[in-house]
Amino acid sequence: MLENFIFSLNMSLPIFILMILGYFLRKKEILSTSFLECANTFLFQIALPAKLFLDTATTDFTQSFDPIFLLLAVGGTIVFFILFWVYGHFVIKEPKKIGAFVHGAVRGNYVYIGFALIQNILGTGTLPAEAMLASAFVLPLYNILAVLVLTVTNNPGKKIDKKNLLKQIITNPMIVAILVGLPFSFLSIYTDFTLPFAIDKSLDYLGSMTTPLALIIIGANTKMTAIAENMSSIITASVFRLILQPLIIVPLAILFGLGNNAILVLFVVFGVPSAANVYIVTKKMGGDADMASGIIVVSVIMSLFTLTVGIFMLRTIGVL
Fold it and tell me: What is the largest CA-CA distance in the chain?
């Protein structure tokens, strides 16, 4: 039992140590606002897409495609989105706060924190096929649902701009990288025809820097002042994000007999804290950015405990 707990703590602590480091580096003004903005753009536009392309291109999806896994990943996200919106409609009332609440409760930091957690647990720099499969479907879905709820709640009665919605999806660098990598995977281009060493190594370098840089940036952008005004809704959204969703999805995954990697990925998809994009997209679309920021902060702090407990439980029942 103690061994399982120590294992769980060791898997989650490195993530939060880097985030805490980022927070204090920003507080000491070692990391400036301009640096963080540039680093975030570099991460979003270059480093992360390089990692996603490389991982997608080298993954054999034909060996791991499972419709039940996809149903839980995609269907679960949609069902929770609807339930949280209904809850917000009846409990929160104020439209702009509803949008931020739903967005924060649904959109997890799967790519930055989730990928790091999966790699720590599996002890490898390469993500399993299930993780990439979830990326290919869940990431576009996050964007669609975010634009939908924020458009409706921030502009009651206004029609959704379908062209703008489609543009946001197909121009997202992460989604583009996955789509470009898929033909390499399905046609075995990357494995059958070795890329020049210089290109392959450059992509590997970019991918390797993604996780630590992302975690430091998340910590540096954490704002502790955005919580008090919306405390009740922020805590509720964090509980929905970190506890309710994995408590429902993981038992279903076990019940349906999914493999250990699939169960782990689903736990991470539905159990990681809210994504930094919750604040960025909510603010850009005129929503309640303060509530969005508060959900990110509280969910990140709470996740140190919830992720550790979740990993401990998965290890105890033999999934890890």
Answer: 58
Tens-place pLDDT, residues 284-304: 777 887 888 788 888 888 888
| 2-316 placed in CATH 2.80.10.50 | no
- 157 three-class SS: coil
Residues 6 or more apart whose Cβ sits within 8 Å of residue 259: 66, 130
13 backbone dihedrals φ, ψ, rounded to 5°: -60, -45
- The b/e string for 26-43 (b: 16+ C-beta within 10 A; e otherwise) is beeeebeeeebeebbeeb
- Helices 260-271, 76-91: axis angle to 10 degrees equals 20
Q: Which residues pair with 106 in a beta bridge?
A: none
Q: Which has more confidence, 159 or 213? A: 213
Q: What is the pTM of this model?
A: 0.80
The residue extents of the domains of the chain are 2-316
